[in-house]
Amino acid sequence: MSGAKRTVNADSKGGANRIPGKGRLTPAKTARFTFDGRTYQGLQGDTVASALIANGVHLVGRSFKYHRPRGIVSAGPEEPNALIDVMRDNARRQPNVRATVQEVFDGMTVASQNRYPSLTFDVGGINNILAPFFAAGFYYKTFMWPKQAWKSVYEPRIRAAAGLGVSPTEDDTDEYASRYAHCDVLVMGAGVAGLTAALAAAATGARVILCDEQPEVGGALHYDAGVTIDGQDGYAWAQDAARRLAAMDNVTVLTRTTAFGYYAQNFVALTERVTDHVSRPARSAPRERLWQVRAKRVVIATGAIERHMVFANNDRPGIMLASAARTYLNHFGVAVGRKVGVYTTHDSAYEAAFDLHRAGIAIPAIVDSREQPGAEVLAEAQALGIEVLTGHAVTDTKGKLRVSSITVRRVSGGSSARSIVVDALITSSGWTPSVHMFSQSRGKVAFDAETQRFLPGIYAQDCVSVGACNGTTDIAATLAEAVAGGELAAQAAGFSGSARLELSGTQAFAWTGGMAGAAYGAGPEDDVKAFIDFQNDVCAKDIRLAVREGMHSIEHIKRFTTNGMATDQGKLSNIHGLAIAAETLGRGIPEVGLTTFRAPYTPVTFGTLIGHSRGDLFDPTRKTAMHEAEEAMGAAFEDVGQWKRAWYYPRPGEDMHAAVNRECRTVRETVGMFDASTLGKIEVVGPDAAAFLNLIYTNSWDTLKPGRCRYGIMLREDGFIYDDGVVGRMSDDRFHVTTTTGGAARVMHHMEDYLQTEFPHLNVWLTSATEQWAVIALQGPKAREIIAPLVEGIDLSNEAFPHMSVTEGQICGVPTRLFRMSFTGELGFEVNVPADFGPAVWNAIRERVEAVDGCAYGTETMHVLRAEKGYIIVGQDTDGTLTPDDASLSWAVGKKKTDFVGIRGMKRPDLVREGRKQLVGLLTKDPSVVLEEGAQIVADPNQPKPMTMLGHVTSSYWSENCGRSIAMAVVAGGKARLGQTLYVPMADRTIAVEVSDMVFFDKEGGRIHG
Amino acid sequence: MADLATRTLPLRGFHGGSAAVRLTPAAPASRLSLRAKPDAVEALSTALGLSLPTRPKASVTIGTRHALWLGPDEWLVIDETDTDLGSLAAAAGVLHSATDISHRNTAVLVEGPGAAAAINAGCPQDLSLKTFPVGAGSRTVFGKAEIVLYRTGETTFRVECWRSFAPYVSGLLAAGAQDAGH
């Protein structure tokens, strides 16, 4: 016990049940909070649970199904009942917080859950009386008829009634941080075992991270006042050890930090609660921090969790785990009652009784279902004058909102029942080693028949379990095991030397006993509510019912009864449920098996998992170099993958339709400028560059001369179109490849993949240059005169620089790669400049464009203009099932080529058969009707449903330049249907269309050479 | 003849950090993506005036010029002055690929006692001095972005990224810097 903090509590500061002189909190440091609107005073360092008990409050919630009054069961993360709603303000509110873990802070607002209108009077309590109708599996049986009613009536009502907590509706204003970390040895749990292992590992110089879920280290030493280490009080030794560790450069001690997920190759997720205990946290401080730790070795020192006794009406407020009562007394200085009964089959509960007795609390009786408790604890009880009823069981309890008496009978039967008045009952049926993290690491547990426990068996990762989670309970053995475990972990991580750590430990009593399953009076013949899973209201009889109904696997029993499926994930109930199932099935526990442990060990907030990834940091938002200039021009933007692209440039009074019509007209009449920077660019360099492109594209590249460009298409191995784009040959060994915006990254990977795996013999390298260049497209009859005065060293004449050319020179005094190309069918150029120069060049061009009444245009106009010319967009007009022939692009396939990616795929029978879906143009009979993209096409609109669909519309626009609507579509056997009338059935009408070719404007194609 | 175009830097105006970390945009630099096979390394080293590193995560610095090993046949060459690195490489006369990426990349300088923690907000690498010593460089991930991380001092790093990822990278660095101060 920390002597300095043990000051006498003169008044009843921090609650009437605070016992002067007990506990480790400082009476002067108080914290006021409200619970269901009433103000209470606790002490700093209290949990909500300890502060409420200190103020005499045990009733904290209603159960999930039956709405039975429930109290605080535990003093730790295993808590099934005491789930509360904690609020700082409307935005910073969290439901389903365990009151046994949440620390109080001054000004906090706490509310109970799952009750209406109030905790003491809850109308849902009717479910308790109607319980026979709510047996296990009732959802599956009761609410099936009439069938439609499930969705409309039963499910919504059941969900409303059974919901646990209420989600906040406002955006969470808290910060959540995340951090990756590496260490040689990660120690989970800072109890005796964890601290010792960390000391041993750290002494070798290894980098150690020690984490513990509690605010202070110490683990079981929080309650176990009977332990000394090196002659020192155990808890005080633990605090000293933590201080020594924290002072070392190679050690990080993280308290309030739970290891909740154990993944492959010793990758462990921790959640650190940074400010949940702080009254007024700094605005910049994160509420929680996610640690993703890669550890060379892991030491698991997660301790053990006490189980409750399973008997009739064992769920009344005031009935709790013996170790919890001991924690409240020894750590928080709080008495859980004034007359505390004890019901146990394990010696550990005796020590709780002794501590309470010595603190002046009456212990009316220790009821022990064993005939022979441990001799040492029995002797001590007798010495203290505590009545011990061996061979007895508690078979019932009374008390509406808090336990008021217990009924005790001899387990051998015969004798009459005895009623004992209590205001609290503490129980223990033994301890379950916490093998959660070991199991999450994919280790296999083994059942130890002698102690009836699952213990770590076969290890799957580089970790070791020490202490109570490994089944070691004796203090001296724990210390030795932890020293060895820590040292070996450090050595395995590459550190030599031994800490020569020798610690001696003593404990007051050795513990014996324990049982799993239902106690006397809750057997198969007893129709009582003996709860095993408090939160999900699962009783012993529910498990038996599940078995009778044919569930023989523990996984089925779990899902049928919902045992272990609540927020506590069965930390108290799993072993009891398993034991009852095994008994009912007449099999051994290991044959029935344990359910799988999965992450998270305890509930984790979405905030922790999301971390920084929200708002602007949810996903990168990519903007081109000219984005701000375009924004200043009033552009509306659209999302194209991660990119923001200028969509259209509305002028005052214009809607999108009017702006696009104007932009479309302007490009064909004068000139338009367009930001094409997002198109993917790949620099392909090396003596074998042309040979490589020959293999990647369907086209032939040997014949392309430096200074010329070619439109290329690439296929996947299966013969379908993968991407397209214009490729310019800068020199014999250097190509400037462009890809679609969306295809930039995957085309690069596709090429790199083939280069490394199929064509490693080629001397060629690929470099992404997408972002090196800002690209300004100029399209329209006046395009040449716009850039002519700006360029230097480039002859722009048709003769010197014809359509599909590329050259290098200067524009506005900076280097450019200038392309003569077009995606509109007009005379066109694409000005590439190093990206930092983009805005300046854009503005210089813009000045000249506006002087001739040209305009900037966005992606929508670009789409319309290219559709007028029948140019496809890969990914819009193709969907991964179109061949070059289907898209009328056979001309782009090198006929003499003997190899390229997809050449064999293209020849597959299904890809050359008649009647494939082919890309064609569609003209509505009524030119004013614009088809819907994605609409289905049929030959006969009067056929019975379901109709035979021939294909669908891929692109559809109003074309201002054509004075009518235009569309592209994939249609079965489309090219043979030119001139045919087909139909597009819509919800309200049927639209007649004529199949056409895909060129709607300037069919001769003369404008491009202007 | 129009006015000479001026540069607009991707991270103009950005500054940030916390008591533990200072974040500043790096000045414009010349950058080259250099690709070559082992037999060309010596000649290219001579041409560039530094010995191209051949071990993973290694870098070499001579004056204002840095070469970072990114892969068995790939280097990122950075010169903090306006230098035509491509022409220098070409003079080696050996088989290689040199692509100018001076404008593709931009960089944030991360300095201070919390620098490694700030970067570890999104970068899963072990940034201890033992495994990521001064001079270490690595193409790696930072949240959802690709970066080249280069340790220039015990508590100083250069974080290179593609220009359009700069707002995201600098934003996540700022978030990490804020957390590193707590």
Count the strands of chain A?
51
Q: From N to C, what is the helix and strand string of chain B? A: EEEHEEEHEEHEEEH
Describe the global form of chain B.
Answer: globular
CATH class of the largest domain in chain B: Alpha Beta
C-alpha-based Rg of chain B, rounded: 17 Å
Radius of gyration of chain A: 38 Å
Strand content of chain B: 25-35%
Helix content range of chain A: 10-25%
Counting DSSP H or I runs of 4 or more residues, the number of helices of chain B is: 4
Would you give the CATH topology of the domain at 176-304 and 433-506 in chain A? Answer: FAD/NAD(P)-binding domain
Name given to the CATH homologous superfamily of the largest domain in chain B: Probable tRNA modification gtpase trme, domain 1
From the 3D structure, determine the CATH topology of the largest domain in chain B. Gyrase A, domain 2
What does this structure look like?
The complex is a heterodimer of chains A (1010) and B (182). Chain A is an alpha+beta fold and 1010 residues long. Among the domains of chain A are: 3-142, 2Fe-2S iron-sulphur cluster binding domain, sarcosine oxidase, alpha subunit, N-terminal domain (Ubiquitin-like (UB roll)); 176-304 and 433-506, FAD/NAD(P)-binding domain (3-Layer(bba) Sandwich), CATH 3.50.50.60; 308-429, FAD/NAD(P)-binding domain, CATH 3.50.50.60; 516-594, Arc Repressor Mutant, subunit A; 914-1009, Aminomethyltransferase beta-barrel domains (Elongation Factor Tu (Ef-tu), domain 3, Beta Barrel). Chain A starts with 29 loop residues before the first strand and ends in a 14-residue tail after the last strand. The relative contact order of chain A is 0.07. Chain B is an alpha+beta fold and 182 residues long. Chain B folds into two domains: 14-27 and 104-182, Gyrase A, domain 2; 30-101, 2-Layer Sandwich (Alpha-Beta Plaits), CATH 3.30.70.1520. Chain B is globular and about 55 Å long. Chains A and B meet through β8, β15, β39 and α22 of A and β7 and α4 of B.
